[in-house]
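Researcher: I've got a protein sequence and the SMILES for magnesium ion. Could you write out the 3D structure of the bound complex as structure tokens? I'd like something to compare against our soaking experiments later this week.
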Amino acid sequence: MSRKKAAKGKAAASSPSAGSPTGKGTGKAARSSPGIVQMNGVVHPSRPSISNSSEFYDIAFKVMLVGDSGVGKTCLLVRFKDGAFLAGSFISTVGIDFRNKVLNIDGVKVKLQIWDTAGQERFRSVTHAYYRDANALLLLYDVTNKTSFDNIQAWLTEIHEYAQQDVVLMLLGNKADATHDRVVKREDGERLAKEFGVPFMETSARSGLNVELAFTAVAKELKHRSMKEPSEKFQLQEYVNKEMKSTGCCRS
Ligand SMILES: Nc1nc2c(ncn2[C@@H]2O[C@H](COP(=O)(O)OP(=O)(O)OP(=O)(O)O)[C@@H](O)[C@H]2O)c(=O)[nH]1
Ligand SMILES: [Mg+2]
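Model: Sure. Here is the predicted complex with magnesium ion in place.
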């Protein structure tokens, strides 16, 4: 397997086709993508990556964070990428942005290009155009905000309309640390996820609970699919349950 170098920051941004509505976004995501993700997760061999980064990767995928404004998408990404929590006043994302991270999944370097979308309604048309290139979607609600939970069904409808049919999807109930403000029980999240047949877990960008696990689980699923390893059928929810139990850390 040839090993590619991970493009870094905004220069690596892959956008929907030129002239798409997303070109009107922040302008951060409108460039083409040398050596980056193909829809099946295979890196295009004929286009060398341009990078200052020393991180190499074997396969790359696009992951998109979606959900209502304020559920913690940006904080989740910052926690995963930098291991820090963005405390202080809430700065709502404008348009769409991305960060890259390379994970070692069973000896394979898997690069995730993670798109952080704006949850605000007025940016919806901007984000719609990005769905079709996404290999995985992390759909978040906020356990302290019932409306964000009630809106999950509408988000799923949107996802079915705009995303690839085989997109890897996971539901995350974020802010699990906020015990006193919690209004959505873990069981409610589990029930909804079961109803729609999507894997589920609770996370906390503040404490770091399950953040690494959420992205690793998605990366594992994508890697298994792209490497066509039917003999070792990977079950995302089973993996998540097992990992949560083995660390004993993650039930609130
Ligand atoms: N207690 C707690 N607060 C969180 C957590 N994650 C995010 N927050 C807070 O929730 C607010 C919104 O977080 P963001 O990550 O900016 O929300 P967002 O989903 O990116 O919002 P948009 O960009 O508008 O779509 C901020 O004030 C964060 O500090 C968490 O896990 N626990
Ligand atoms: Mg944001």
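Model: Residues 7-54 have pLDDT under 50 and may be disordered. The longest helix spans residues 211-226.
Researcher: Great, I'll pass this along to the crystallography team.
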